[in-house]
Each structure stands twice: as structure tokens, then as C-alpha cells.
Design brief:
Number of strands: 13
Radius of gyration: 17 Å
Order of helices and strands: EHEHEHEHEHEEEHEEEHEEH
Helix content: 25-40%
Number of helices: 8
Shape: globular
Distance between the termini: 25 Å
CATH superfamily: Aldolase class I
Length: about 270
């Protein structure tokens, strides 16, 4: 996939990784705009290509009473407003075929969640929109098996597809990133490393997913050293009060320092033989 095929994506010639970042879920207009504006300021300063992400709904919650969203079209309108106001591409998840037609009217990139990476009808429907498709690698899938998911997109006539690794399930309550998978998946498609969901601790007895945010920079550094194409980060100005996945999100106040460090590592890697 060529990054220049993503509408509104800036700094494509910066010889850097690109960034997919934003809150787990759209909680409202004010919070989403605050996060988008702060990330945009940082990425423009550092010349990092930036895609804003936010789920318009959360369909895969552990508990029945967990937050799922503010309303589908209301949240999608927030995403479109961010794209139009800041002239940046936006990404959101889709969970079923009816989401595809609806979300594609508002966003630039459709993301297939990891649990749905093998859902053929969903992938084909997404491909036929002509939008860029980001497939999250299933926690239960090997890196090389992602070629079959990608082929469902490309053989449907859409070559604008990328893969995001969000770790592999290890036991019942932990995730592990196998960095050998990065070059394997890069042979298939543009590859992104999700450095926040990779640190999730799912299936907690409380029904609320845990995480290890102190390890975000550790995972991100390793991804950049191994030349991953993009970095995926969920971030919030108050993770403790976020309505979804707050336990493994990066505090927005730490984002600029993290990205600055990652850029220094990428520059060093680019100078290696």
C-alpha cells in the first residue's frame, strides 16, 4: 500500500513511521477534538504522518453494561468533523456488514477488529468501498496466516490494505508480541504495531480489561528498531476516566516525549547498513 493513497495524510516524505492514534472510543465532540488537536500539533512539529482513530461504537465489550458509544451516527459525525476541520484522515472500526456502508460515508479508513479478521463477508464488503482497510491480526492467528485475510481485500479489487499486529494471546490473561512477525507481515502488506492493545490483560474477573501502560515505550521502541511501518497508540488526556480501555492507554501528556524518542531510534536505524 502506498501512503499517498490515504486522503489528507501529511508528511509522507519524512522517512519516518506513520502514526495511528486517538482514543479508544468517541465519548463526545469536545474530548475527541481536544485529543485530535493535541496529537496533530505534536505530529506536525515532528513531521510524522498522522491518522486519527476513534471507535464510533464498541461492539465487543466483556460486560453487558459496559460503555458502547454515544450513538452511531453522532459519533461518526464527530469523526467526519475532525477530518474536515483539521484536514487529516480518520479511522474507525467496523463489526458487521451494516457498519460498512454507514461508516464509509464518514471516514477514510475502515478497521477490521482482531476478533473479526477471518470474517470473509465483512472483509469483502469493506474492500468494495474502495476505502483503505486496516486488518488487525487476530490474537489467535500466526503472522503468515494474515496473507489470506489480505487476499480477501486485494482479490476484491482493493490494494489499499494494511495489517496491524496487536499481540498474540498467551494463556488466558496476557498478550505477547512476537517481533519475528513484523518482517513476515511486511512481505504481505504495510504493517503497523499496536503498542497499547498489545499490553492488554483481557478476561479479568471484574469484566474490565487490564493493561500495562508503563510498558508502552518498551514495545514501541522494539517495533521501531525492527522497522515497522506504523505505530498504533490509543491515548487520552485522562485515561483513568476513559470509558473504554483506560487501563492500557497512554496519557496524552506523555505522547510527545515518546514520539521524539522513537524518531531518534528510527534515525539511527535508517543509518545502519
Amino acid at each position: 500500500m502506498k501512503l499517498e493513497n490515504i486522503p489528507k495524510l501529511k508528511h509522507n516524505t519524512s522517512n519516518s513511521f506513520f502514526l495511528i492514534a486517538g482514543p479508544c472510543a468517541i465519548e463526545g465532540d469536545e474530548m475527541a477534538n481536544r485529543i485530535a488537536q493535541e496529537i496533530l500539533t505534536i505530529t506536525n512539529k515532528l513531521e510524522i504522518p498522522f491518522i486519527f482513530k476513534g471507535s464510533f461504537k464498541k461492539a465487543n465489550r466483556s460486560k453487558l453494561d459496559s460503555f458502547t458509544g454515544i450513538g452511531d451516527e453522532k459519533a461518526l459525525a464527530v469523526l467526519k468533523n475532525i477530518s474536515d476541520s483539521y484536514d487529516i484522515p480518520v479511522l474507525t472500526d467496523i463489526h458487521q456488514i451494516s457498519d460498512v456502508k454507514l461508516a464509509s460515508k464518514y471516514v477514510d479508513i475502515l478497521q477490521v477488529p482482531a476478533f473479526l479478521a477471518r470474517q470473509t463477508d465483512l472483509l469483502i464488503a469493506a474492500a468494495k468501498t474502495g476505502k483503505t482497510i486496516n486488518i488487525k491480526k487476530g490474537q489467535f492467528m500466526s503472522p503468515d496466516s494474515m496473507k489470506h485475510a489480505v487476499e480477501k481485500i486485494t482479490k476484491s479489487g482493493n490494494n489499499n490494505v494494511m495489517i496491524t499486529d496487536r499481540g498474540t494471546m498467551f494463556g488466558y490473561q496476557d498478550m505477547v508480541v512476537d517481533f519475528r512477525g513484523i518482517p513476515t507481515m511486511q512481505d504481505i502488506a504495510t504493517t503497523v504495531l499496536d503498542v497499547t492493545h498489545s499490553l492488554q490483560k483481557p478476561n479479568q474477573l471484574s469484566g474490565v480489561t487490564g493493561g500495562s501502560p508503563k510498558m508502552i515505550e518498551t514495545i514501541a521502541r522494539a517495533g521501531v528498531v525492527n522497522n515497522v511501518d506504523g505505530i498504533f497508540i490509543e491515548t487520552h488526556f485522562n485515561p483513568g476516566n476513559a470509558k473504554s480501555d483506560g487501563e492500557n492507554m497512554l496519557n496524552l501528556s506523555n505522547l510527545e516525549k515518546l514520539l521524539t524518542n522513537l524518531l531518534e531510534i528510527r534515525r539511527t536505524v535508517n543509518n545502519l547498513d
